[in-house]
Amino acid sequence: PRRRRPGAAAQGRQRWRSDGRALQKLPVHMGLVVTEEEPSYADMASLVVWCMAVGISYVSVYDHNGIFKRNNSRLMDEILKQQQELLGLDCSKYTVEFANQDKVDQVLNCQSTLKVLSPEDGKADIVKAAQNFCQLVAQQQRTYTDLDVNVLDNLLSSTNGFPDPDLVLKFGPVDSTLGFLPWHIRLTEIVSLPSHLNISYEDFFSALHHYAACEQRWGK
Fold it and tell me: According to the UniProt entry, where is the signal peptide (predicted)?
């Protein structure tokens, strides 16, 4: 178990708010991608809560084995626990919506929205979207010339209501995002870190600082 100094939570809250305001730009949607074989619920929960604390609006959690998604409730319990531990009395300001694509999403007035994804939400979602488009063509509701980026985006269900990720933090030695939303990360900045195990806030904020300083040239 992690031991925290008395008063550390209050100091952390003040620092996180200040850090979020100090960055030149903050990702609207951050993806947290674990390529390691044994995901840590506690460490992932810390990352999610830090995202909330600095002001990131949308967070996606992904591991290539789908462990987090299969054990969604366990991850959510850990997030709520750490939300209380790390944010304390400020917890109500950082309400998180747990969006689940298998159910109708609740619309909440909250700062951060979280989705837990697995490989079935990546390439399989694209295949399903293509099949749905073909069905619309067969029903003469669409023609094949209608297919463009926006139409395909609207047919994808895994990130319905989410913007494309601005920043992905990839954890682990594998030089790949292993199926994480392949359609959506065409213009995403990807920062690789050795591991999410025992990840420190300093490592997390360093990645945000790198993103804030990065100039996207859009292929120019």
Answer: none
pLDDT tens for residues 4-20? 544 556 666 677 778 88
183 beta partners: none
Do 136 and 114 have their domain in common?
no
Tokens of 99: 């969006």
Q: Is residue 53 part of a domain?
A: yes
pLDDT single digits (tens) 123-175: 666 666 666 666 776 777 777 676 666 666 666 655 566 788 999 999 999 98
Burial (0-12, 13-18, 19+ Cβ within 10 Å), 109: exposed
* Strand residue runs (E) in the chain: 29-34, 58-63, 96-99, 112-117, 167-171, 189-193
Q: Which residues contact 2 (CB under 8 A, 6 or more apart)?
A: 42
**Sheet containing 112-117: order of strands:** 96-99, 112-117, 58-63, 29-34, 167-171, 189-193
